[in-house]
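Q: Hand in one record:
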Amino acid sequence: MKVVGFAGFSGSGKTTLVEQLIPELRLRGLRVSVVKHAHHSFDIDHPGKDTYRHREAGAFEVVAASDKRLMLVREFEQPATLSVHHLLAELYQGVDWVLVEGFKDSDLLKVEVWRAPEPGQVAKPVRYPEDDFVVAVATDAPQGLPVPTQLPLLDLNSPAQVVDWLLQYEHRFEYHWDLHGGLVPCAPQ
């Protein structure tokens, strides 16, 4: 599988870009998964549903499946901090690309998403000068970047261009299974 992260401040357009990249990759015949960093209080299950009732009764894991979908909910007995690598290990091995949103401090190769500020607002800082894992910047205003860079600049408003760039350099994003069944990311290049 190939794994690429998308990092940037809230409101930069990470979610919108990832959402637009999924159909672009699928149009090219590729299977796509997404890993998203969530806040500690998120929930995908709802009161009154059987799976919610099982979880509330104390089940450690609840798996629900149909002919169209599978859902796994795991309750941690103690607060747990999972790395992005733990989450990637949970994914189906037959996926072509994994788009990771958040996990800005991870050691995954990532595209920084930076949007020009609205009039009267202050520009958000950038991560790429200090983060060796940022390999490109997706932006709507390359001339407005607060720090000059030699990194590739991708058009934030052109998901097809971003996908073209990802596919051109896909070898850089390989994420291999090791002999023990774990995943091993490639190093920055």
Q: What stands out?
A: The chain has four helices and ten strands. The chain has a mean pLDDT of 87. The beta strands are 2-7, 32-36, 61-65, 70-74, 97-101, 110-114, 134-139, 153-155, 175-177, 183-185.
